[in-house]
Amino acid sequence: MTDKDITSCKQANYLRISILILGVLLVISCNEQARGFALPDGNVEEGKANYKRLACNECHSISDIKWKGGSDSLNIQLGGEVINKKSYGELVTSVINPSHKIAQRFKQKSTTDTTETGYSKMKNYNEAMTVQELIDLVTFLRSEYNIVIPKTYYYPYY
User: Fold this and answer.
1) Residue whose C-alpha is closest to residue 39's, from 112, 103, 106, 91
2) Closest CA to 133 of 33, 79, 56
3) What are 98-102's contacts with CB under 8 Å, separation 24+?
4) Which of 4-8, 32-36, 107-111 has the lowest mean pLDDT?
5) Three-state helix/strand/coil letters over the chain
């Protein structure tokens, strides 16, 4: 085998490995459940009305809607300044399946924010609202988050 043949074999192997890695990355990055999923645009004002009607402010506080405080006095802040905005899908999931992703601080057994088994105390609203009401509610919630660039401190390098 000549040096040219060896070089060609090495290049072919690198190409095969590169294609394999790209293929694996492509498969990993595909989310089959989200493919083709799209909801129509929502109405912020209708979503705000739904937030009040469904008494979300008994457990959640958000901008200009007064927090009522429910029987267990939860006050979970929604909206405000964040470094990355909640995605539409994350908010929809949080409403229809609130136990899907609970912050570690709320999973502790001593907290009053979850049940004894670690599930969210948020009641199931899946039959209490229409799909359009859900869309409007999520549109309203997304409008309440403001992205801010985190402050960074750079020190001169000497």
Assistant:
1) 91
2) 56
3) 98/122
4) 107-111
5) CCHHHHHHHHHHHHHHHHHHHHHHHHHHHCCCCCCCCCCCCCCHHHHHHHHHHCCHHHCEEECCECCCCCCCCCCEECCEEECCCCCHHHHHHHHHCCCCCCCHHHHCCCCCCECCCCCECCCCCCCCCCHHHHHHHHHHHHHCEEECCCCCCCCCCC
The model's pLDDT over 16-46, given as tens digits with 9 standing for 90+, comes to 787 777 766 665 555 555 566 677 889 999 9
Q: Which residue has the tokens 């539409």?
A: 88
Provide the whole-model pTM: 0.63
Cβ pair 85, 142 in contact under 8 A: yes
Residue 48, pLDDT score: 93
Q: Which two tokens stand for residue 132?
A: 């359009």
End-to-end CA distance of the chain: 54
